[in-house]
Amino acid sequence: MNHQTRVWITGVGAVTSLGHAYQSVADNLLAGRSGIRRVSRFDVSQHASQIGAQVDDIPCPPGWDAEEFGRLYRMEQIILASCCTALHDAGWWDRRQSVRFGIVLGQGAEWLTIWDSDMTRGGQRLLRSEARAEPLVKQACRKLQLTGPAISVAAACASGNYALAQARRWLELGWVDVCLAGACDAGVTGLGLAGFGNLRALSRRNDEPEAASRPFDKGRDGFVLGEGGAMFVLESAASARQRSARVYAEVAGCGASSDAHNMVIPSPDPEPAIAAMRQALNNAQVEPAEVDYINAHATSTPVGDIAETRVLEAVLGEAVHRVPVSSTKSMTGHCLTAAAAVEALACLIAMERRALPPTINLDEPDPECNLCHVPNSARPHRVKVAVSNSFGFGGSNTCLVLKAV
Amino acid sequence: MHADVAAYGCVQAAPDQFPALRQKPGPGIGQSLPNNFLKHADEQTVVALAAVLQAIEQFRMSEICFDGWGVAAAPFFLGRATLVQALQRYAAEGAWGLSPHFIPHRSQHAISGTISQALKIHGPNFGAGGGPGAAAEALLAGAVLLEGSRLPGVWVVLTGWDPEYVPDPEGRPTCETTCQAVALALVAPRPGWPGTKLSVLPCSRNERQDEQPAKTSPLSPTLQTVQQALRASAAETIPLLWELEGGGRIELASGGLNGCAPPTAFASRIAGRPRTLQQAGAGTEKKR
After folding, report:
1. How many Å apart are CA B238 and CA B255, to the nearest integer?
2. What is the rounded distance in angstroms from the CA atom of residue A363 to the CA atom of residue A90?
3. Contact of A219 with A364, CB cutoff 8 Å
4. Which of A141, A179, A254, A334 is catalytic?
5. H or E element: which one contains A77?
6. CB of B26 within 8 A of CB of B48?
């Protein structure tokens, strides 16, 4: 295979605060429902931000021992549940060992998450040798009985787009026949709330959880932590056609760049993020005016949403007032490492349902964010080309272009 | 996929060397970084940047503009000691006890992000792996990035503590250990390149696992074995190979005459073998 190889998404699995089945996530996103509420899994009384889009019951995949699944760390559960659902959805579950099946997992702080989870349960893994420990992606590979290469990639909130880009390239190079790719995070924890809270990045609208995440709105005051994951089955168009597989979309273009400015603060210079978007559009051979929907990174922070607006204005040009833009973080919260993957799923839903998921809580758009918004209610719209931006700590800028097939 | 290893640097530092190393992580641009640039960085980030700076210095790449390059960095149990302290403070002081720098500087993108910032790299940067097997993951991901994105070059950086940093309940190491890093500058293969070459070869659909050539290490590459292989590559006449989990292999091979020879495009003279941190002068300026 080569650069001309078309790579299609043929399976989806997700764990989100809006549901775990594709249909329920789609229904809730398009109904404008929020998954954000007061965090109940641990004591948040000392935290400035006490809200989150937490995932409560992670479904045990069919065929798995529920007790054994229940003993896994939440991050492990999210990964396995997402992967299993995607494999079943794609129709590869029973034949997954007959091909070179790879996996690229986006994750952000795997070991810190595991050690924190373990300590919470009273364990001591943090203080013992972990030389023989098995990374989550290898564990997933073994438990799912996949035989291809397995790696994890980390670019903070942009991790999912890096994972999709890497998997797409593996398929183009012929390294794998089929590949799972996506990202997962279990970030609604005490350390997560405290760490981002002390960065003053989180909303403190604790009395109105569902109204707290309000990207592009004049009253936004920070993002809301979310968690979950989405994994996708990627394969060549030829393979999908041969199997008569259901096709969600083509992974048509990927772009990535770095700000080289600050580990946390977005660059005041929009050029690096502009470059990532243009790279992705060029890669997909799509003109800006051909874009039907943009799922913005927009996290609901005062600085970030304006910075992304400048990027969209530059890339779209005159089309900026016609191309619909929404931020589904208004409903899912900011799923951190999993954000790009969950938002790629939102793009697939927009394509399949021919409707644009809204930015809820967009009551008074910030004049500095003068875009073609989809405020508060979903809107019918045929989406053939969807773009998803994801930017992250470490100065990462990524853009994914998905095309309807 | 094949790449020339245009430069490499290997650095190790004991815990007592970090205060100086944070101030001046290395020669060249390492001297001109703001004094607080690495103030909140993890030790693995500090040695990672030092290894990159050492490679630039040794292989005479200081005139190179890295603007379009990429970075793939593989930490190994990043932030472990800091997590011990963070959990203690969180338990004792509540939410306000956690440093706002904890997440940005102890997440697995922290090393690649810091290097991109230091070198003004505007290409992609990301972390790969993070624990056992991280070296193979970074070499694989870095090679894919170089080949797929047609970048002028990619820094692949591996870091970790040797032996493993197992913290005590205060976060201090339970044995003597040093923090290590190796940085490889990968560029597209050029005809006649006499230095070290990296190949990442997938297992083709029909290839049998027992057809691996001789001299294959039974284990995946690690930070330590990659360092040894780079240092030995000048003398080796046959490739050093590691098997990749999931099929395929990684190969480091000498170009022939001198595995340490810098590429002519980047250097005006032959550079020497890798120096120790002290030999490179990194972090020792105050002492001299």
Report:
1. 10
2. 39
3. yes
4. A334
5. helix A74-90
6. no
Distance CA A259, CA A276 (A): 10
Residue-wise pLDDT for A226-241, tens only, equals 999 999 999 999 999 9
Count chain A–chain B contacts defined by CB atoms under 8 A. Answer: 230
Those residues whose C-beta lies under 8 Å from the C-beta of residue B281, and which sit 6 or more positions away, are: B27, B288
How far apart, in whole angstroms, are the C-alpha atoms of residue A370 and residue A362? 12
Residue B259 has a pLDDT of 42
Give yes or no for a contact between A220 and A214, defined as CB atoms under 8 angstroms apart. yes
Q: Where are the beta strands (DSSP E) in A299-377?
A: 324-326, 355-356, 372-373
Tokens representing residue B217 in the block? 């290490």
Distance CA B135, CA A168 (A): 21
Amino acid type, A146: L
Q: Across the interface, which of A148, A174, A396 has its CB nearest the CB of B109?
A: A396
List CB contacts of A357: < 8 A, sequence separation 6 or more. Answer: A29, A30, A32, A295, A326, A328, A331, A346, A349, A350, A374, A378
B2 CB-near residues (< 8 Å, 6+ apart):
B189, B197, B198, B199
Residue B94: closest CA among chain A residues belongs to which residue? A46
Place of tokens 């590459």: B221
A157 is catalytic: yes
Residue ranges of B 3-62 with Cβ closer than 8 A to chain A: none
Closest alpha carbon within chain A to B139: A151
Q: Do B205 and A177 touch (CB under 8 A)?
A: yes
Strands A228-236 and A7-15: antiparallel
Determine contact, residues A117/A75, Cβ cutoff 8 Å: yes
Rounded Cα distance between A182 and A231, Å, is: 4
Q: Give start and end residues of each alpha helix (H) in chain B.
A: 18-23, 29-32, 43-58, 80-93, 102-106, 110-119, 134-149, 223-232, 277-280
Exposed / middle / buried, residue B219 (Cβ in 10 Å: 0-12, 13-18, 19+) = exposed
CA distances from B97 to A43, A319, B82, B86, B110 (A): 15, 47, 13, 8, 21
* The pair of three-digit structure tokens given for residue B193, joined into one six-digit string: 């390149």
How do residues B212-261 score in pLDDT, each as one tens digit?
A: 444 445 578 899 999 988 887 766 656 788 888 888 889 988 765 444 44
A381 is a catalytic site residue: no
In angstroms, the separation between the Cα of residue B143 and the nearest Cα of chain A is 11
Q: Do A108 and B109 touch (CB under 8 A)?
A: yes
φ/ψ of residue A400, rounded to 5:
-120, 135
B114 secondary structure, DSSP code = H
Whether residue B105 has pLDDT greater than 50: yes
A150 → closest Cβ in B95, B125, B246: B246
Three-class secondary structure assignment of B123-170 = CCEEEECCCCCHHHHHHHHHHHHHHHHCCCCEEEEEEEEECCCCECCC
List of chain A residues whose C-beta atoms are within 8 Å of the C-beta of residue B120: 260
Residue B125 contacts A where some CB pair is shorter than 8 Å: yes
Closest CA to A314 of A258, A274, A354: A274
What type of residue is A165?
A
Paired tokens of A228: 């979950």
Q: Is the ipTM of this complex over 0.90?
A: yes
